[in-house]
Structure prediction request, 140 residues.
Amino acid sequence: MGVGSFVYLRRIFEHLVDAAYQIAKSDNGWDDEAYRNGRMAERIQLLEGDLPEFLVENRSMYKILSQGVHELTENECLAAVPVVKMGIELVLDEKLAAAAKQKNWKRQRRRFMALSVKRGLRFALALVSSPSFLRQSTEL
Prediction:
């Protein structure tokens, strides 16, 4: 179960990096060749702005996961799994918090936009105070 856990956690790590790559590769000036030819630590450096901060600061986690898959014994992996698992959980928590922040930002932007509609501020205030608008804006 120790080595198997490392395989699973490493796949999660790789998926997080690949998801950031899918976003970054459409940016102007993206150096796809540098990404494809780079080691994981270099790839993470290239994706720094698109990855959770904890993952960027602890990019050596991938090396640890790879060592678990290829070099460590089952018992060594079992001893290290809780630490590495917590690292992955912190990265995922950070990603979820960023998504929630973005959702709240969009919701609040809609509310401010409603305040500036042509019908005037009083109408907009009545609109954003209505239960149907509040219910709709929380469903974003």
Observations:
- The chain has eight helices and no strands.
- The two ends are 40 Å apart (CA to CA).
